[in-house]
User: Fold these one by one.
Assistant:
Number 1:
Amino acid sequence: MKIGYIGLGKMGKGMVQLLLEEGLEIVAYNRSPEAVKEVSDKGAVPAYAYEEVFKNLDTDQRIIWLMVPHAVVDDVITEILPFLQKGDIVIDGGNSFYKNTIRREKELSNLGIKFMDAGVSGGPWGARHGACILIGGDRNTYETLLPLFQAAAAPDCYQYLGKIGAGHFAKMVHNGIEYGMMQALAEGMEVLKVSDFDFNLTDVSRIYNCRSVIESRLVNWLHDGYEQYGEDLESISGEVAHSGEGQWTVETAKELGVDVPVIEGAFNFRVQSKGNPSYTGKVLATLRNMFGGHNAKGE
């Protein structure tokens, strides 16, 4: 299988390297040429313009994977549209709002172009070594793309979830749940820290992740964060950024008449943390840094 890959950020660059190792041929493009050069050194075919992407895809049905921020997906589609033809497949592997995904599929299908959504979880490490992929779109197109999803995912860590938008909807809810889980963990750490007991939080996080009920990748990342930054997290900002998915989950839940106080509270905490740093915020920022590579130092 040969595909065009657009977007070589924290997630895209690692996934391209994994796909190359899995035997796929990749034509790679990024706005900054340095990233293109980096993956070309690993075996990708470099493309420094959209036209070069399509010239190097010598198949009747071109496959394009987009791995760009949700705010620029429409711009990228507009820019590549002159090079697309009927039967081509475009996959949005980023964190797009599901309603936009549905709209984009309708617009492209009117032109004979197939559009799929693939929510990717696992952060940069997962993208590099095998991610969890939540997929929506036409079932027959999914079957065509199955070798690609199998190559990008960890063993058996991909799932077709239904019609267009289902993948991004499920990933949106996943990220909302993630907000709530992280918030509970961060709040618990602050309770431990201010208690009368002289807890070593590195030790606590280690034992919490040792066959306990709350054992998880998040607790493991927290333990790694304490080892890297120290349990006071002095160099970490107590203000926590958010990237949109938690807000989308809260707003969608309200549209559906579902009460989500945990997720909503976690989202509101991040919004209100601006100008109100706290130890809970430091833990959240540390977690975002450890699994997603997000800046945690407020620089």
Number 2:
Amino acid sequence: MTQWEVVIGIETHAQLATRSKIFSGASTAFGAAPNTQACAVDLALPGVLPVLNKGAVDCAIRFGLAIGARVAEKSVFARKNYFYPDLPKGYQISQFELPVVVGGAVTIPVGQGDKAYEKVVRLTRAHLEEDAGKSLHEDFHGKSGIDLNRAGTPLLEIVSEPEMRSSDEAVAYAKALHALVRWIGICDGNMQEGSFRCDANVSVRPKGQAEFGTRREIKNLNSFRFLKEAIDFEVQWQINEIEEGRKIQQATVLFDPDSGETRMMRTKEDAHDYRYFPDPDLLPLVIGADWIARVQGELPELPGQKRERFMADLGLSAYDATTLTANQESADYFEAVVAVAGKANAKPCANWVMVDLAARLNKEGKELAESPVSAAQLGGLILRIADNTISNAIAKKVFEALWSAEGASADEIIEKQGLKQITDSGAIEALVDEILAANAANVAEFKAGKEKAFNALVGQVMKAAKGKANPQQVNELLRRKLQG
């Protein structure tokens, strides 16, 4: 039986975070009434001329620098000719032979636990282009409507090499790219609003074969779940077709989330079908070293750099550092917690952010930005665990109180509820003596070699102390007395 290898390349359209469009001064704000943000340039009225938005170029440079790519000294805008009702000019201004960003790579974490690994996905290019309008097919009494608000919206099309070999790798790549464009501030990443859309080029080939199979492009996938489902379906469909003796035809397909299936929209065009040629209304884009240096100076610390710093300076594991730098919000929150709790407590800080806080946010369907517990509050709580003011068990209770305390500090809650840990050895010894005297059967079982009896005695002491005795001291005193 033939063993198949999957080959996936992804083209991503990231809407750039500029206030105006790429070749006009019209607004890019989302949600306006149809056709209220389309000016004469966007409508392609006679005599209008495009003027390049410098902010869009800044975004492209930022991205190129962030992925270690070459920012082209000279790039050219071209006309991509095709007819569609929501494309007023009859062509799209894009870049073809000379894109603004060439090469680069993104490192992606794939899988979890023992099966986790890192993969470097190389990028072919990233180029600037304008978006088309939008065709609306609902509530028009059998007709279609055209909304040109999106026409001219600035996009950065990011093209990967066909180096992904599973839907899991494709999703990991898309998530890493999504996090990166948000991190460097060039795209808000809002997939529901169409700010970040992926097209997946999928083919299969017998394992060991060097030549690629015929690809089909799945268009406009606007969620990571749909990306995975669409690729998985398409892969199995192509394998079935080939094994049944049919040939794959290069095509553009759409994914139907309701059926979980892909369906052909049109046979796939090649570059020559679009009759690309340099746009005569736009001069070549020339980017000098001083421009690149300025943008370089404005870049934040990148995820990979922050990850390495977390490992080197704070002693975090690769897993912890990767998880905390998956997005800028979690990285910033973690660093703010450490700023309060201290670098010596970096590991407990990581655990609380990744486990306790994340679980509670997930349970309530909240984002990190909506957390009722601030980084300063959580850092204060971790400090009190570190200095033995409270135990880990009591810390859970304090955390629950912080969740609804509306700004109260851990210290205030500990004081108000009398939760300070008992660390006085005399007081703990008295409790231990009391429990040993009242639990002769457990004592006898322990001396007979049953370790579970020891745990039962520890539980009795902690219960008598209402959970406030220092667990380490309880364990040490109890074992000493039992073995004495």
